[in-house]
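Take a record:
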Amino acid sequence: MKINIFGVWLFAFGLLMGSAGASAQTKSVAIFSYQQDEVTAEMTEGIREVLRTAGFREGRNLRLRLVDAQGSSERALQLALDTVRGKPDVVIVLSLPAAQAVMKYTTHIPVVFAGITDPVASEVVSGWGPSGSNVTGVTDALPLQKRVALIKQISPQARRVGVIYNPTDASSVAAVKEFQESLSGSGLIAIELTVLRPLEVGSAARSLIEKVDVFQTFLDPTVNQAYVALAQVANDARIPLLGWDTKDVKAGAVAALDLTAHDLGSAAGRLALRVLRGVKPGAIAPEIIAHPPVYVNMQAATKQSVTFSAALLKIVRPLVRVDAKPTVNPAAK
């Protein structure tokens, strides 16, 4: 009889301790967006996937709160205060306004940011090393040196890089100047040509055919409006065209480095996971993704006479593949 009573007591004690253990392991995460849209939705999904893979399940060992300020600064401040009062284990902020709202009310609750290009200039963190504060995160910046390295990977023999841009666009002028500086010591030189209207892009590209080995584009609105024409010239002349982002790859560029919203969400999720496991955010330097994804257009590679190295093929993410069946030109629909 004593053994049975002891067994019952032991069983009850085990249930009690198991319940307490499960409760102790439950973590609280708030994902704070200034305005919900397709980008923040993709970031959120990337965060959720990382947490699920790590074994966190909503309603079991994870309390997940999605906060949307709906583009209102006043609402953002009120929701930030409510979020901080809830004392989550970590708040993941998906933009600069979201970060600023949350940081106004706490210097203790861990904050992980995503989607902020320059967190130092924005004063989210004091520098690119561990901040010693309650804040860390991942930037969406991609240093131009990485784009230069991609040019050399795609076209190892290239020496002359064709750059077309609108000189009246201040952002484009600044980007081209930074690109020129990043070419120093690379063995590459920029051959520039300016355009004022989208209609000039195709003819400008054709005039560079004998002068360049590869084209590189930036976020120039004028060029982007005529990207199909630029891609057609690259295809006809069999000159590799490197883009700025996935939109360019889909429009006909052979390759581009880009960080999608999902990529950024996944990176932020991994940082949040480290915090949930006990690492202080102030001990984690803001992350610049060391190996950004290389997105490629396999059809453009064939048309532009690009052969990917075995090493590059292992890491690329094809956005447009070579179809065995004839493809339909979207413009013809």
The domain at 26-140+263-283 is CATH 3.40.50.2300 (Rossmann fold). Residues 110 and 134 are 5 Å apart (CA to CA). Confidence is low (pLDDT under 50) at residues 10-24, 324-333.
